[in-house]
Amino acid sequence: YLLSPKQYRKQFKQLFRREVEMRESKIKGWLISGNNFDKYEVEMDHEQFHSGTRSVKLSRENSLYTEDFVTVMQQVSAKRYVDKHVRVSAYLKSEAIEGWGGIWFRVDGKEYEQLKFDNMQNRPVVGTNEWNYYSSVLDIDKEATVLNFGFLLQGEGKLWADDFSLEIVSKDIP
Questions:
Q1: pLDDT tens per residue across span 68-78
Q2: Hey, which of 48, 59, 120, 150 would disulfide with 73, CB 3.0 to 4.6 Å?
Q3: Does the structure show a pLDDT above 80 at 19?
Q4: Which residue stretches of the chain are H helix?
Q5: Are 116 and 125 in contact (CB under 8 A)?
Q6: DSSP secondary structure, 60-100, as one string
Q7: What backbone phi and psi angles, to 5 degrees, belong to 5?
Q8: Using CA atoms, how far apart are residues 10 and 7, in angstroms rounded to an integer?
Q9: Are 38 and 125 a contacting pair, CB within 8 Å?
């Protein structure tokens, strides 16, 4: 049957709440989600990091389905960002990604409808790369209520993320 975006997200959260609660202790304050995300490894890595002492690593071997993906994400209120130009950024490192990966940024309205979205699919992280800076910039409309952001891996490979930032930037930043 048909669900509104708000109903779908509520059911989705309830369906995966136990899995998220089990995994969330590894990455406090971040949610783990995706399509068949239980087929992926999500862990803190104390050997590979851009700065500090750790990063978050997503990995998968032997992926048969190209639609499978895992994301580590946060949701924050849009209240302080309304009518602002906002950038989500992070440093990413990849190894043998045969699908694609990247950061993503989505703006939702009061009925959880998607107002804006960027997932780097048009500029994906693929293959093997050292630490690089990636960003996504969106204008936050007055209808916005929630900002969602994170990073994702679709398919095989390894993807690390470090130094996430959510910041208001000047309008001249593309």
A1: 899 999 999 99
A2: 150
A3: no
A4: 5-24
A5: no
A6: ESS---TT-EEEEEEEEESGGGTTSEEEEEEEEEEEEEEEE
A7: -55, -40
A8: 5
A9: no
